[in-house]
Amino acid sequence: MGTGPAGGSAALKASASGLKTLIVDRKAEVGVPIRCGEGTAEDVLKDFGIPVESGLVRNHVNAGKFVSSAGSEIEIATKQKGLILNRENFEK
Ligand SMILES: Cc1cc2nc3c(=O)[nH]c(=O)nc-3n(C[C@H](O)[C@H](O)[C@H](O)COP(=O)(O)OP(=O)(O)OC[C@H]3O[C@@H](n4cnc5c(N)ncnc54)[C@H](O)[C@@H]3O)c2cc1C
User: Fold this and answer.
1) Atom 42 of ligand 1: nearest residue by CA position
2) Most-buried pick from 29, 35, 58, 87 (CB within 10 A)?
3) Whole-prediction pTM value?
4) Which atom of ligand 1 is closest in space to residue 6's alpha carbon?
5) Could you give the number of structural domains in the chain?
């Protein structure tokens, strides 16, 4: 089912329900290479019952800036507690 967020969370749920679970991915190593900005919110992890712990989190953030290749910029302040995942560890 793949080891991204969708496959990983489906596998966790299946395993927690007592099913014998095997996850298969075409990549040689789970979580590598990372093709993601790794930005999300603490509430998202809490919704999935995932602990907000240092091995899974690179940084806590309360604002962000998006910069286009043409140089335009948009700044946003988050209402929720934002964080940058360590997605390699997160997927493993
Ligand atoms: C440049 C970039 C930046 C991003 N930044 C953010 C961000 O900051 N915050 C955020 O929330 N989201 C971000 N995203 C989006 C986020 O990465 C995706 O929404 C998320 O990865 C989707 O999860 P998924 O499990 O559906 O798919 P994926 O993460 O793509 O996982 C699918 C897995 O299935 C495997 N697979 C596919 N086909 C097969 C097959 N036939 N056999 C075996 N294995 C297979 C793949 O190797 C992969 O590991 C970003 C995406 C990109 C491209």
Assistant:
1) 26
2) 87
3) 0.82
4) 25
5) 2
